[in-house]
User: Fold these one by one.
Assistant:
Number 1:
Amino acid sequence: MTEKKEQLVVLVDDDPRIRELTAKYLSDQGLSTITADSGKSLDAVLKNNDISLIVLDVMMPGETGLNICQRLRVNEITIPIIMLTAKGDEVDRIVGLEMGADDYLPKPFNPRELLARITAILRRQDSAKIISKNKVVKFGDFVFNIEQRSLHRNDIEISITTGEYDLLKVFAERPMQPLSRDQIMQLSRGKELDVFDRSIDVQISRLRKLVEEDPNKPAFLQTKWGFGYIFNPDGDTK
């Protein structure tokens, strides 16, 4: 029997007090945690460790959290990212999601909530390794392998983040089934949708850029006006 790999989280924040207190709390709860104070020190951590998740503060001097997130995704580093944003700053949250973040938490935050967010993402990663009854879903020129967590177009692999995978898996397992934003949030993240939360719309917009010929006229991830979204693997826009 293969021994389960230890899950390791890196917390990136330029505030030493937040780093130390949060890392101590996460470690006390049984979650192995490394800290970094900048994008440069994060790079060193990633080079020398097998990281399961990144907690990334937005507001940092020099290279901001948003810049770091964008750089990682451009370099096809798909490790899940939770952004720590200023309370009430919706712009940072939306931009972070557009750049490839998987979730966000406004500061100041309750460490218990951060732990819950981390645990939820890591649990989804583990459960995704269980063989699905529909292991491979084909739509257009795409082949989405749920078990292998891979997306190919014409035999060329497309880099996909954990958040994008979770979202596409929800749709792929429920073709032609209209899903509300609340349902999508529950199925993909296991939490309730806040009335002002636009993250589902932002992530679907990001996913459309991966799989749609024209994201403004989606054939596969279609909008169900007044309700939510629907996945049409045949790409029929009529």
Note: The longest strand covers residues 81-86.
Number 2:
Amino acid sequence: MTRSYRHLDTLTIGFVVVLLISNLVGPKIVQFGRLEISAAEFFFPLTYICGDVFTEVYGYGASRRAIWLGFFAMAVLSAMGQLAVALPPAPGWNDQVAFAKVFGLVPRFAAASLVAYWAGEFTNSYTLAKLKLWTGGRWLWTRTVGSTITGQAVDTSVLVLVAFAGAQPLKMLAWIVVSSYLVKVAVEVIATPVTYWVVGSLKRTEGIDTFDWRTNFNPFAWRAEAA
């Protein structure tokens, strides 16, 4: 990514902010009817929509950059949360137990998120980039929904198993996976008109519509060639 873009940095910052907030609220399980899902499911799907926008407009290379920046931000959040809990509380501060209960969950949940997020986001971006080539840039909805179906399947399964295994019964974990997956895919489908508008506006504003014909899809390569 050698060209300068007007909105790419802003979108990347928003992506990282959403990711960090999702990790802070994610450990809470909420119930709506028969659905039992993480509180993050109301927010985290936005990161996949951002990933779709990155890949569709700027290419896989821009998405890869955002994914890694989010990864490092989550690692810092986990480390700082652990450090803050370990530091001795002041004599007059009586909230250590509550603080440790909240932030003590962050390292495990963040570790699960790091693995799940990394695998899921790259699956999402790779699927969208390939579908764009196969469709010749037509039928955006097939790419946004199709990439979410694959990416969220990986993300949700890994996240729930790593974050909650041993803390919840297997039956509950299985239901959380199914519930969370359905919610995430539903959010992507519902957000499709908004995604269309954002993608169209960015393509016009930035004057770009990237096709990853010659892209290096290695997730560990920082730079990528695209045409």
Note: Helices lie at 8-25, 45-58, 60-86, 96-103, 106-135, 140-164, 170-190, 192-206.
Number 3:
Amino acid sequence: MGKQWKKAGKIASSQAKGAQFTKIAKEIAVAARLGGPDPDSNSRLRMALDAAKRVSCPKDTVERAIKKGAGITDDTQIIEEVTYEGYGPHGIGVIVECQTDNRNRTASEIRFLFKKHGGNLGETNNVAWMFDRVSLLEAKKNPLPSDPEEDAIEVGANEVGVDDDQTVSFYGAIEDLDSIRKGLLQRGWEILTAELSYKAKETTKLSAEQMSEVVEFLEQIDEFEDTSRVHATVE
């Protein structure tokens, strides 16, 4: 499939510009609420602003989202982060991270999408055991080193993978996120993503037909406006 579905639901993955900007704005607002409106002291906000710049998100959308998250507007709605777990088609384990101002709406839609594709939404920790909680850093470097594992070892990452678009994923312990980020920057890497994530311990073996059905399901989950990230036990 090329990109693994650990990347599905990232704020830059949506095909439609409008949906893309909406997801970016939510991430900016959440980041500003949790860590403050100054990107120099809020690495999550800095990552979100970089993502906004890469897709030419309108400046007023970005500024409004920062103010909303920092609580300096008249908008009293709070965007919360909620996580859903369940089994998708053919028994794949799925974790869906959402950002929403209406938990009931989001839960109802996620439940509908699972049921529509023959899956079922579960309770907390229903499938979490199928994943490791990890630090994930996605980065690029030009030219790409012939062996990115050397840099991974140097910065304290314990696993590395290279995608079709030459983006390199570095995985590490959750407490090492910032030290890995700083180490990669010192070695000339451009950081695209630096966050806590979920990595499947094992992937579910599927036929081509089954994979097609799974991809359709994951794409619909990903396209839902409240979805920020999707993790599944498939590649």
Note: The domain at 133-200 is CATH 3.30.70.980 (Alpha-Beta Plaits).
Number 4:
Amino acid sequence: MNFKNFGFDSSVQSALSELENNGRIPHAIILESENKDTALDAAKYLAMYAVCPQSDKPCGTCIHCKKASLMSHPDISYAYPEKKSKTYSIEQIRSITKDAYILPNEANAKVYVFEEADNRLSVIAQNSFLKLLEEPPKNVHFILLCENAQRLLVTILSRCTVVRLNQKAKIDEKSLENAHQIVNGIISSREYDLLIALNVLSDKQISDETLFAVRILLRDGLAISVGGDFLLDGITGKKLASRFTKEQIIQMIELTQSSAIKIKQNININLLTTWLCGEYRRISWQR
């Protein structure tokens, strides 16, 4: 990703870098931030990335990038509640669904941005939106801005890549200790070390915070691998960066996020930890 002249700090750059995979970004992204301006700036950046035709994108200079920066690109839509309503209506979601299947006007992709999605998307609207997220048209992206992504339905979260922006890593000592054990298990050549470390996830009261800390530690490794700054632990970050490729760390971050969602769905924890151990190992052994 090209961050030149965009003014993002290193933590936001690191978070957004996680999303890039072979010149593409996920079809559905949730940007979680306490700062609405930061979230909107990140959404504009990702929308620009999606429509930019250059290899080093977003270039910031092509006609698509210029229109995107002015929020005037015909293939980038910002959804707002109709009239005086504070929430998106079912009719709006249905209209967006129909529009999503229409080919882009100018670019090779279309983008839909939903501000304050955690407040403006009702349960009914989210359920109506679900099928579109499950079977999205080709080259169509949805970006949901939230202050608290946990207000959204689990079914929505499970179909989106959640990115926390400018969130201070306030993690309790126990969860951080658990996270270090898991990450050290990932780095270790002994599968048993990782399997034992993952047993802490059986305590569902701290599993979410533990997996969040694992994501931050992995993100530190990703940041260091691309020359950025770490958020939580530089030493562990350097170990990750020296042991794994950028692509491997990104896959691990995505895996950790999906595991956090599975735990909320009351999946059998023994099956989850066994599966998770196998998936971390599979990624680790990729060449």
Note: The two ends are 23 Å apart (CA to CA).
